[in-house]
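Feature request, filed as a ticket because there's no other form

It would be nice if the structure record came with a short human-readable summary line next to the tokens. Right now we just get the raw output. Example of a typical job, pasted below so the devs can see what we mean:
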Amino acid sequence: MSDELVHFIVNPQSRGGSTGKKWDKMLKTINSLLKFKFEVAIADGIGEGVVATKEAIDTGATILVPVGGEGTINEVVNGMYQKNNEKLRLGFIRAGTVNDYQQVINWPSDLETQLEAINRNQTRKTPLTLVKADVDRVALNIADVGIGANIAYASSVERRLKWIKGEFRYTLLALRAVKNWKNIPARVTVDDREIEGNLSMLMTGFSSQAGGYKVLPQAETFGSKLAYLTAMDFGKVKMIRMMSILKKGTHDETIQGVYMGHTSELKITAEAPLLFEVDGEPFSYNSTTIVVKAIPKAINVIMSTT
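Raw output as currently delivered:
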């Protein structure tokens, strides 16, 4: 038996509560196919995944496997980041609504194939996005402020339309957010570039996709610099039209008010407090200045193919 110890961090509320209903059946398959010793922690409240991850590491876990959506993954990643142990590895069991990051890295969808990948335990060094705001937080997928953060708040905090599955739920939440949206006077500083105006959206990270939309088509998943998209002075009609473009990932700077590129660091400043989110989870509510930095080759992520 290998010395590896897998720890599953399970959010039974993910995928509209279906994860909790299916967990016993999933556990039987894990018992049958996983070649490593394993333990399980249930984490269904905000912040519980971070605590459970750090406790698992303290008791010998070497492979951390979130069973949930982007928010559950983010909490596990932040627990790993805070422990700062280069030997730790991150795996996945897909149990989210959209599973953006897993789609980007071509992580399989069926449980048996996912367990095969964890058994192979082949990893790749993966960057993280560090956000310095009310508190420090890292993102594996995408960090953002503006309309996207409001959508994330409606999804993960208010849990609106939770009975609707998949990318369609994100689209409905986006349309609802646009209806009530007011742009934010702000300044975005990217290297020697100053972007000032009424902020509609800012997204940044190493992953190309959020909510099933290809918001950062220029992103380099295993690169050293953040991709970013800033949209300024968008009216509601223009934002709705932009949704179809974001879905395909065909946008660029030829669209008025859109600014895109790569950077190691950017800063957002505003007169009023900003709502900021990472990986679909709002975490900062009161900062008027937020700094986002790239952390290349930050953690070991298990890959489904070598």
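Something like this underneath would help us a lot:
The longest helix spans residues 18-33.
The first strand starts at residue 5 and ends at 10.
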